[in-house]
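#lab-general

N.A. 3:47 PM
ok so I finally got the sequence cleaned up, no stray characters, all 116 residues accounted for. can someone with queue access submit it? mine expired

B.Y. 3:52 PM
send it over

N.A. 3:53 PM
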Amino acid sequence: MTSKEKVLGMVEICEDRKAQEIVVLDVREVTLVADYFLICNGTSGTHMEAISEHLVRHLKAEDDCDFHVEGSRAEGWILVDCGDVLVHVFTLNQRRYYDLERLWGDAEVLSDVTTA
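B.Y. 4:20 PM
back already:
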């Protein structure tokens, strides 16, 4: 499975839990850290935790990748690191504060998966 196929599958998983404002950045040309960043937010800490836990359950079931989870709902940012894909699940306030889309502004936005 390519990293693009992986991130597109992760978008669907996040959509299953009603993640908001899903954006995928293709960061292959701007960093060696990962190929894609999937950025989304929940409506509350509980919602963002539900999104990330749903993603983790799918990753375990599919045995898709070795992954690592950092952060917490109390921090307002949960990171699911799958190596070539990094999933950032925020509360809205933390997403606005960190503004990863601006920080990684040189990255291409995959318009076919961007949601409002």
